[in-house]
Amino acid sequence: MEAGGERFLRQRQVLLLFVFLGGSLAGSASRRYSVAEEKEKGFLIANLAKDLGLRVEELAARGAQVVSKGNKQHFQLSHETGDLLLNEKLDREEICGPTEPCILHFQILLQNPLQFVTNELHIIDINDHSPVFFENEMHLKILESTLPGTVIPLGNAEDLDVGRNSLQNYTIFPNSHFHVLTRSRRDGRKYPELVLDKALDREEQPELSLTLTALDGGAPRRSGTAQINIQVLDINDNAPEFALPLYEVTVLENTPVNSVIVTVSASDLDTGSFGTISYAFFHASEEIRKTFQLNPITGDMQLVKYLNFEAINSYEVDIEAKDGGGLSGKSTVVVQVVDVNDNPPELTLSSVNSPVPENSAETVLAVFSVSDLDSGDNGRVRCSIENNLPFVLKPSIENFYTLVSEGALDRETRSEYNVTITVTDLGTPRLKTEYNITVLVSDVNDNAPAFTQSSYTLLVQENNSPALHIGSVSATDRDSGTNAQVTYSLLPPQDTHLPLASLVSINADNGHLFALRSLDYEALQAFEFRVGATDRGSPALSSEALVRVLVLDANDNSPFVLYPLQNGSAPCTELVPRAAEPGYLVTKVVAVDGDSGQNAWLSFQLLKATEPGLFGVWAHNGEVRTARLLSERDAAKHRLLVLVKDNGEPPRSATATLHVLLVDGFSQPYLPFPEAAPAQAQADSLTVYLVVALASVSSLFLFSVLLFVAVRLCRRSRAASVGRCSVPEGPFPGHLVDVSGTGTLSQSYQYEVCLTGDSGTNEFKFLKPIIPNFLAQGAERVSEANPSFRNSFEFS
Question: Ranges for the Cadherin domain (predicted)?
Fold first, then answer.
């Protein structure tokens, strides 16, 4: 019989499964599954991948998960097979109590794209509980004068199963005087009533013992029994009667403890002990005894604990009124619990997407559901967030919400958001729950480095030491991490003739600029270059700034006298007529300075004169003028020594020697100085030496050319037969380095002579002498006044 029952149950489960699946597929997206209670953990409910029309790999890739209300997870989803399995053994009576059908609601949450699938699981009851009486033994007192057909209430049994498996009927044995009726309450529970069939006779049988059996409708059927002991009494012909057979009362669930919710009242027409009434609960359940208390004398029913509408919303309490003679009456009190808004809303967070890239638009940041245990308006909820946030709440199915960004975020403006989700019900007073979600914004490389200045001007004193730190550039990046790490570099100069790589260098990490060599103001007064700043993001962003370097002049050049020439040749004699007036312009000392600014401001001073007081020099223009009238007593020949000094720090100077001859008139022939004859003789001997030296050098040069031609012919002839005649090849280094440390070349000439011996060319390379720059500048200044002087510094 048990095997047949199990087969029937399995057939019913399979039938219900196909019915629910068929209705689910034919209707909306919601599906209903069924499973019998008490199935072991891991029991297969259904294959979700097949039901959803997805492949198992797609189900796992979309991050499918089962979401249930509350913290208890009854299900588990296998991503390897797509099967929906039981996570624990289900007890229908524990989950749903007397509610039928017993439905568990759950959702399938899919990502990418976001999708909700609502499902239901019907838990099928099995007959795993037997009917149980609250009292295993009942004691009744019945008057012997009780007429047949009298109905006597009995204590009922309870069966935790539902439907067909619940309690169905009662039987009694032996049944010579009584039979039992099975009655149903309004809530569906069944209770027995004992009906007297045959009058009792106390003298014949003062006591009776009956067995009351409660049977359910399961397969196999389960039963429970209670013993009924009946005492036959003498006549007490009036039983207590209640004023109302049914008391109905409504009580707020927040009613204080010890409050009287109802007072029952019964009367008895008898007198004495037969008319004294006491009240008591009649076969009340343990839950009723823990919740209510009945005063046996006054009939006041009080609360002994707080009510909870969400747990039990109504009570049906049987009350018995018994007189002193043992007769009793029964009434029922129905307590309806009224819901109050005493439960705040609940928020269950399903997933959080944080951090979120700043350039992503309309991204789902969080998925959550809300619920409220109250009913009516007390259980309806609303969700909201602050208005000043770039997010929006979007409702979904069955109280599910998604928190979505409205547009692209900017980490540089705000890198973190504290989002407070407020859930408020519509009850009175309104209750709310706040839940905080921290949304972090991750950085993307969307900001290029920015220099603190668009252009920089650096001042460098000439003759600096190599590797001197001359300044810095700085750039900042609003991004973070590697996106904000800046690397500096020198950009290729627009002027291709500027040797930037040999002038400056930059520290790639901090932007410090260094001069690689000593700078010469006279050679290079200023130069410009561009500096780039590049971050380490992907892709890398960069910017650039202009750097202008101004070389500051130092007083490193002495004045150079252009006129009169101080080259050791025959001195230039200035002729002055003796009739010259005071202030007569004798000559003008012309000098230049390779420096600039105040370092090139020249002043003139007469240091020494043959006859002091006769001539004077103007300090600012170098004009030599007579200081007084000339006389016959004044010497005819004068030698003046003029000091030319610049205004630098420290000052530098040069001297010029002037020869002045006083004549009576310009028609007088020029009389050379007596010391000029020995000098002329010395010049003639020097000319002889120069001619001899030139002849020697020319001979040596001719011999070198012949030797070189011979070597080349030898190399070509031996290359065809034996080999090659080896001589040193390539240019011989002939660099001359200025090590004076002043930053300017010395006034001595420098040459570079290279003899190349490669097969392509046979030539001598003569470089022009390198002369100081200030000579060239000075020559340019006086080129128009004295072109022969300019040509004297050129070599061919």
Answer: 75-133, 134-242, 243-347, 348-451, 452-561, 576-671
Residue-wise pLDDT for 285-309, tens only, equals 999 999 999 999 999 999 999 999 8
Tokens (6 digits) for 667: 């028609």
- Give the Å distances, CA to CA, from 355 to 64, 360, 365, 405, 437: 21, 11, 9, 12, 12
DSSP-derived secondary structure letter, 621: T
Give every CB contact of residue 128 below 8 A, 6+ residues apart in sequence: 37, 38, 161
Q: For the whole prediction, is pTM greater than 0.70?
A: no
Q: Can you read off the two tokens belonging to residue 615?
A: 């001539």
Contact 127, 219 (CB under 8 A): yes
Rounded to an integer, what distance in angstroms lies between the CA atom of residue 454 and that of residue 439?
A: 37
Query: In this predicted model, which residue has the larger pLDDT, 341 or 568?
Result: 341
Alpha carbons 375 and 253: distance in angstroms, whole number: 12
What the block records as the tokens of 51 is 């039901």
E strands in 304-443: 314-322, 328-338, 346-352, 356-357, 364-371, 381-384, 391-395, 400-405, 416-425, 432-442
How far lies 785's CA from each of 589, 655, 773, in Å?
14, 22, 20
CB 437 within 8 A of CB 403: yes
CA distance 547 to 453: 10
C-alpha to C-alpha distances, 281 to 32, 245, 334, 335, nearest whole angstrom = 43, 15, 13, 14
17 falls in which pLDDT band (50, 70, 90)? very low
Q: Cβ distance 466 to 456 under 8 Å?
A: no
Judged against a pLDDT cut of 70, whether residue 735 lies above it is answered with no
The answer to which of 412-416, 487-491, 690-694 has the lowest mean pLDDT is 690-694
Arithmetic mean of pLDDT, 366-392 = 88
Residue 379: closest CA among 426, 310, 309: 426
List of residues 6+ apart from 586 with CB closer than 8 A: 574, 576, 615, 624, 625, 626, 658, 660
Q: Could you give the angle at the alpha carbon of 711 between the alpha carbons of 705 and 713, nearest 5°?
A: 105
With cut-offs at 50, 70 and 90, classify the pLDDT of residue 242: very high
